[in-house]
């Protein structure tokens, strides 16, 4: 756990942005690593690294969801993505009185369907990149989908990850796919955060800042991390590691175990996901 005097030293560096150390208010396989971080004390909310301003998407509406219902969507993910698809999306469609997308395994089967694919996973996140690329190039996604989405997970980015190398591999793959299949729209997703190891969340934040810088300005980014770390009171849940890195934490009201989403978190994430899909639909 960060020493109180260490946190004060870090926070003092933000100058007039923060004063002193005060208390803030606070799936399926593979199983996440057991939460192993030491006991944690919240601090006054630190200032995050300045993200690139994301292009704003219009508010969700029945008309926007009807546009999504005209699309063929391919979504490749693991467990947090499954929470969004199975728990969150039905709630959002129901709340707006619009028939939900049909969820099918693999490739979408026509307008108004979402092809749901669980990415291959090993200890190397390159496995997921390779699996997604194979589905695009070899399994026929461009002939069956209008929009393709891939989501890396919190197990893919840890304190040991070479963050710039992973981002470069992702960006290079996407650049090649976008060039080869210009008729297919790609939506990008930040890595979800947890309430577990601070150093892992700090690495996730570094990766997500690169994603925001590359894809945020033109509306091609679903910022899942920002969505699930912004609590219902509108405050971002931020903290600082012992080394002084700012990171995001998932809001307790949105998670069932510190990493996966509960019904409320899934609905909040799905609303933003569908809002972004609506903005690029058509």
Question: Can you describe this structure?
Answer:
The chain has a single domain (58-280), classed as Rossmann fold, CATH 3.40.50. The protein is 39% helix and 12% strand. It contains nine helices and eight strands. Strands 2-3-1-4-5-6 form a six-stranded parallel β-sheet. Helix 7 (198-215) links the parallel strand 5 and strand 6. Helix 2 (62-68) packs across helix 9 (263-280), helix 3 (79-96) crosses helix 9 and helix 6 (163-180) packs parallel to helix 7 (198-215). The protein is globular, with a radius of gyration of 19 Å. It starts with a helix and ends with a helix.
CATH superfamily: SGNH hydrolase
What is the count of β-strands? 8
Query: What proportion strand?
Result: 5-15%
Q: Could you give the distance between the termini?
A: 49 Å
**Count of helical stretches:** 9
Average of pLDDT? 86
**pLDDT below 50 for ≥5 consecutive residues: which ranges?**
1-45, 47-53
User: What best-fitting shape do the alpha-carbon axes yield?
Assistant: globular
**Count of all domains:** 1
- Give the spatial strand order of the biggest sheet: 2-3-1-4-5-6
Q: What's the Cα radius of gyration?
A: 19 Å
CATH architecture: 3-Layer(aba) Sandwich
Derived from helix and strand composition plus strand pairing, the structural class reads: alpha/beta
Report the CATH C-level class. Alpha Beta
Order of helices and strands: HHEHEEHHEHEHEHEEH
- CATH domain fold name: Rossmann fold
Report the helical percentage: 25-40%
